[in-house]
Design brief:
This protein is an alpha+beta fold. The chain is 24% helix and 15% strand. β2 and β3 form a beta hairpin.
Length: 217
């Protein structure tokens, strides 16, 4: 017999065996299901109907729920407090610092402070002068033309007097209004001698005003 035919026969046998086994299982399942379906009905006990709801009643005034019972806890011991009828102020705490240690001080030779210079006195100034009689200064000559023309006036000359008492420079400070009178005054003063000006007793050159009055009598 060929191997292929042998394999087919074996396969057919296996299929037949599988079919028999499957049919048996199916039959057992159908019989079991039928047995379940044929079981007699069992009456379950009926429960009593629920009671009807109670009609609403007036609610009592709300009150605080009862406190839960608490366990007894041992209270801490109360400290002994001493009180008095008068208010007691706290006593201030005074802390005394130790006295500072006295350190020896080395002797220092301090030189005396220099004496302040004496105050400077203002300089004593003496202006020049031309009024001394011993100078013998001549009187300015009145110009004849000015007399005929009735020319009058005051002349002020600014004179720089040297330490020797000589007029070094002459300037016309105030004019009389007439040139002839001004020139006559300058010519006369240029020949005068003066007492020189002094500063703290020392003669020095100074400016000096010399007034000359031309007036017809």
């Amino acid at each position: 017999m060929k191997p292929q035919a042998m394999a087919i026969i074996v396969a057919l046998h296996l299929a037949a065996i599988y079919g028999l086994a499957t049919s048996t299982v199916v039959r057992q399942a159908h019989s079991t299901l039928r047995a379940v379906l044929i079981l007699p009905e069992i009456e379950l006990p009926r429960l009593p109907p629920p009671p009807p709801p109670k009609p609403p009643t007036a609610q009592k005034a709300s009150r605080a729920p009862d406190p839960l019972p608490q366990r007894a806890i041992d209270a801490p011991p109360t400290p002994n407090i001493v009180t008095s009828t008068t208010d007691q102020l706290p006593v201030p705490i005074v802390i005394q610092a130790p006295a500072p240690t006295a350190w020896p001080v080395a002797a220092v030779n301090l030189a005396p402070a220099p004496a302040s210079p004496p105050p400077i006195k203002p300089a004593k100034i003496e202006l020049p002068s031309s009024d001394a009689q011993y100078l013998n200064n001549p009187t300015p000559i009145y110009p004849p033309v000015s007399k005929r023309m009735n020319e009058q006036g005051n002349v002020v000359l600014r004179v720089l007097v040297s330490p020797e008492g000589v007029a070094q420079q002459i300037e016309l400070k105030t004019s009389s209004g007439y040139e002839r009178l001004d020139n006559a005054a300058i010519k006369a003063v240029n020949q005068w001698r003066f007492v020189p000006g002094k500063r703290n007793g020392q003669a020095e050159a100074m400016w000096f005003n010399v007034p000359i009055n031309f007036e017809l009598s």
